[in-house]
Every structure is written in structure tokens, then in C-alpha cells.
Amino acid sequence: KYLFKHVAKIALIVLTLPHSNAEAERVFSVVTDIKTKKRNKIGNDIVKSVCVIISKFSAESLNCIDFKPNPKHFKKFTKDMYL
């Protein structure tokens, strides 16, 4: 029989806890940049979409000048996107 059979399990649980909240702070920083006092009525769907776009552009070292939309993007730009 093991004397300390639960110690290894507890150690693994403790080691899986995040050691920093830097990732969460980064997300809050992006959301704060998006949702300003002048744009405080932006809905959660728009904030989420802008966060995804910012993340994608950052990961691929793109900016709005270098981005080349394809025809699929233009098909989605309809009056329905504003409803």
C-alpha cells in the first residue's frame, strides 16, 4: 500500500493551474481597446468578431492595408449583416 497515494494526484492538479494571468489581461486589454466610451453600445457579437480578427491579423503579421479579401468575403457583405 502507498503511504501518500493522493500526493501525486494533488501535485498534478496544482501544476495544471495557470501560473500567470497575463493571457487574460491581454484579452481584457484588446476588449478595452475595442469597446471605448464612444463605442459603448457595441454588442458582444461584434466585440467577439473584432477580437477574432485582431488575433488572426496578429498571428499572421497582417494589417488592414495588406489584407486581400476574397469573393467569399464580399458575398457576406449584405444588408442582413446589420440586422
Plain-language structure description:
GO terms for molecular function: protein dimerization activity. InterPro entries: HATC_C_dom, RNaseH-like_sf. This protein has one domain (about 20-80). It has about 80 residues and is an all-alpha fold. It has helices at about 5-15, 20-35, 45-60, 70-75. The protein starts with 6 loop residues before the first helix and ends in a 7-residue tail after the last helix. The chain is built from four helices and no strands.
Query: Rg to the nearest angstrom?
Result: 21 Å
Number of discrete domains: 1
Gross geometry: elongated
**Subunit organisation of the chains:** single chain
The beta-strand count equals 0
Continuous helix count: 4
Major sheet description: none
Structural class: mainly alpha
Proportion in β-strands: under 5%
Mean residue pLDDT? 86
Q: What is the string of helix and strand elements?
A: HHHH
Poorly predicted residue ranges = none
* Share in helix: 40-55%
Separation of the first and last Cα atoms: 65 Å
Keywords: Signal
Signal peptide: 1-24
Pfam family, one: Dimer_Tnp_hAT
Organism: Solenopsis invicta (Red imported fire ant)
Present the secondary structure layout.
Elements: H1 7-15, H2 22-34, H3 44-59, H4 71-76
Helix pairs in contact: 2-3
